[in-house]
Specification:
mainly alpha; about 55% helix; about 0% strand; globular; Transposase
Length: about 60
């Protein structure tokens, strides 16, 4: 499995301005074969949000 290059800081603010950044990080991790559960755990997003990013990429 590839290396995880980003770890969510403990005081990370999930305001709307960070969504494009989190989406890019999530899609990058997905493209490297990292599973949805691991991405959700590392980024602090729910699995459904990670899946939403994946389905929005496919459109």
């Amino acid at each position: 499995m590839g290396k995880i290059l980003w770890v969510r800081p403990k005081n990370f603010d999930f305001s709307y301005r960070y969504i494009p950044i989190l989406k890019a990080i999530t899609l990058n991790m997905l493209s490297k074969g990292i599973d949805i559960k691991t991405i959700a755990e590392v980024t602090g997003l729910t699995e459904s949000v990670v899946e939403t990013f994946l389905t929005s990429k496919e459109r």
